[in-house]
Amino acid sequence: MAETVDLLVWGKWKQNWPLGSVTSLSSSIPRAAAEIDDVLSTTQAEWLLFWDPMLGEPDLDLIAALLQERADAWHAGLCFGLAGEPEEHDYIHPIWPLALDADASIDSVSWRLTLSAFLVKTQVLRTLGGLDAAFEGTTGAGLELGRRMIDRGAVVMHTPRLVNGRGTLSDRLSEHDRFVFLRRVFGRKWVRYAAARRSMAHLRPLKVRSALKSSAASTSATPRPGSTDRVVTRDSVISPENPAITVVLPTLGRYELLRPVLEQLRKQTLMAQQVIVVDQNDIDKRDHAIYEEFADLNLEVIFQVERGQWLARNAAVEQATGEWIAFVDDDSEVGPDFLEQHLEGLHRYDADLSTGASLAVIGAPIPENYAFFRVADQWDSGNGMCHRSLLERFGLFDQQFDRQRRGDAEFGLRVQLGGCLVIHNPHAIRVHLKAQEGGLRTFGSLDGFRHRDRTSPLPLPSMVYYTKRYHSKRQVREDLVIGLSQSIVPYELKRRASPRQWLGFVAGEVVHLPSTVKRVRASLHIADEMVEDGPRIPKL
Q1: Which of 334, 347, 524, 528 could tie 338 with a disulfide, CB 3.0–4.6 Å?
Q2: What is the reported pTM?
């Protein structure tokens, strides 16, 4: 083993440790945080292993193997009962994909780490900081560190191999640490909201109030570890020469936008061997001339009578000859290195699925975390790439989502929960024009909770179908409440409305309350039927 690994043990260690030096950590988190900072300032080791001696001796052969695999940090948190913690996540961001945990028996992306069995690159902690001394226990400190790492570009993965699947229950997350975590991760208004919900759910308002007060004092008195503008990065790599790439591009009612994106695909630094356009336009409105114009692209056209974006993409993938499959939408603008950047990012991170930065011209503001590589929290079928073998392993897209939304989110989540790595690539950029006509706009929806027709089911039934398939009843309920509340604001003011505008929109919505209730009930009924029917996922 060429790389060295220092051992940071919670307690005393009497055995030999041949991979590096040994440091005993205090059970007090503030003291342990200072001890870890001392190690980070002096050690020459490339990796650090945090370990509870109650687990016995670490498997040295396994440690050597993990150093060569794709994660920046490995842990066994899901074997220690940390799945779903803290539960207040359900009230704030109930269906965030990275809040869902894969089965503890497989390797998978997870930020819910335990400090009892935790292997991490030293440079990651030097970049992002060590333990947060505002916490009282290792459970909360580990959760916050894991969340901080995955939010700032580190690939953090759970593996049961570290403890041979035999983890024990972690110390219970205290009320104080629960709210320290929420204060570090979420904004002030969400902390107050979570406190109110926890008080109602557990009928312990005095205990919650005490934790709010103590956590506020601790976080204000204790600096946050590391700098908030620093992220974990990796060096670029050389992609394979002459890769076989197929581009999948469905289109409906947007010939004026299709032509520019085909022109941009013609100018790629890494040319696709095949471009498949799935044309869903009515027979009498088809423009055959545009395809003759771009015949040099190795263009193939599938004329599809039945409309459906997932039916279209599935048909294209089934016809694809490329080893790599790239996905783009017809209301997109892409740069000349679009395909090259996707491929490089997949190899840089040894990732299974890539999603790029989609910069929308209207709607919600562009998130700050679009600017750096990180574990993706959602896959975008208008800006993505994967190896053909991934689709062979997990199946194609669920056609239950046709003419509706969240089909790409479902595929990304299906892959993530299967133990795969989905990466966000900031260099694979497309401008999402958000065309007001064509595509999904043909069917009336602006997004999952906004529709031009005030008599249609609300939200789109596929939104509820998605949550019911993967989420708890509480998460389904909370997503519905938050989504309906936010949908009061018009699409163009999404996440931009002022408090005064909010009051006006709420007042205007009161008159529609009876019809809204009726629409929601209709959506839930259709979603239940979809769940009963089950997914429609073709095999490749």
Answers
A1: 334
A2: 0.94
